[in-house]
Design a protein that fits this description.
Length: 340
């Protein structure tokens, strides 16, 4: 920073020698010179200091087997934004990850720039008892030393009841809104560096943006959606055939495969009946798709409860009774025969 100011002062004296006869040009130069100094001062305050914080939280720490919760990792860095921390989430032992979301925000308050990154993971409990979610790790480059630093969050303990989760018949399970718990571990590290250290990064970012703009003119084109062709077959008969074949799993005492086969038979029938692809969709996404297509509301509720009961057996430790095993087959058969 001092070096930049010295160079500007030397340039000022040099210009004054050549322009001493033109007072208007000298006055204009002085004004530009002081504006430049003001900009450098403002930027030096904004980027003079950097701090990094990492926290983790859950929206609830008591739930039942098959219930969902939201795990959130929050990373805040104040000051220079020329590096992006690498977030390494925990392994989530005892849970199944069904979705993840991320959000970034930037704010400048009292001449301090703050970048906040929120990463959320939607988890379903598949193991009962006391389950510990391990620490999340955040790796970033220290601008002053050039070394990779690592910080981690505090492990979180969640209590999972072995009872069957509650499921509403009229609507799909809502996505809970995460609430940051007070009992979290905050780790903060302060880094000091000069504004002049940012100049190469700023130049590199400008060149990179220009390259992206040029590449977009030649590369990016709106992709055409593939046309899905459905064969002219008796899909109801084929779905009932797939459903009947699942009884072979019961003879082998493989209940999870049986429930998976029953679920897939219904998924196949709905996909063929509505002429849409549901192969890669989860239960919640299938229900959302049916609502968008204005399917019968009562039938959506029946399908929602049916698929949820299948998911509890497929992905959790729930053991269905003989009556439930027989009933799930009849419910699948009714959906295939009566879907409108």
């Amino acid at each position: 920073m001092n070096y930049v100011l010295i160079m500007l002062l030397k340039l000022k004296n040099l210009f004054l020698v050549f322009l001493e006869d033109d007072w208007r040009i000298i006055k204009m130069y002085k004004r530009s010179f002081f504006i430049t100094l003001l900009i450098l001062f403002l930027f030096s305050n904004v980027f003079s200091q950097t701090s990094v914080e990492a926290t983790s939280s859950v929206d609830k720490n008591k739930l039942k087997l098959g219930d969902s919760l939201i795990y959130t990792i929050t990373v805040k860095r104040q000051g220079a934004g020329n590096f992006t921390p690498e977030v390494v989430p925990p392994s989530f032992d005892g849970f199944r990850v069904v979705g993840s979301y991320s959000q970034n925000s930037v704010a400048i308050i009292n001449m301090a720039a703050t970048v906040t990154t929120n990463m959320q993971y939607e988890l379903i409990a598949i193991k009962s008892g006391e389950v510990i979610i391990d620490s999340a790790y955040v790796k970033f480059k220290d601008p002053s030393t050039g070394k990779i630093e690592t910080i981690k969050t505090k492990p979180i303990t969640v209590y999972v009841d072995s009872g069957r989760p509650k499921q509403s018949i009229t609507q799909s399970p809502p996505t809970p809104t995460p609430e940051i718990e007070k009992d979290i571990k905050e780790i903060k590290m302060k880094l000091q560096f000069r504004f002049s250290d940012l100049i190469p990064y700023i130049i590199a970012i400008i060149v990179f943006i220009l390259a992206l703009i040029i590449a977009a003119l030649f590369i990016f084109k709106k992709p055409t959606e593939p046309v899905i062709k459905y064969e002219d077959v008796d899909y109801k008969k084929e779905a009932l055939k797939k459903l009947k074949a699942t009884k072979e799993f019961l003879r082998k005492n493989d209940v999870k495969s049986y429930y998976t086969g029953v679920y897939e038979a219904v998924r196949y029938f709905i996909s063929m009946h509505l002429k849409i692809s549901l192969h890669e969709l989860t239960t919640q996404e299938i229900i959302k798709k049916l609502k968008e297509l204005n399917a019968d509301k009562q039938m959506i509720d029946i399908i929602n409860l049916f698929m949820f009961d299948c998911d509890v057996v497929k992905f959790a430790d729930y053991k269905p009774s003989d009556k439930e095993i027989e009933d799930i087959y009849k419910r699948a058969e009714d959906i295939i025969n009566n879907f409108v």
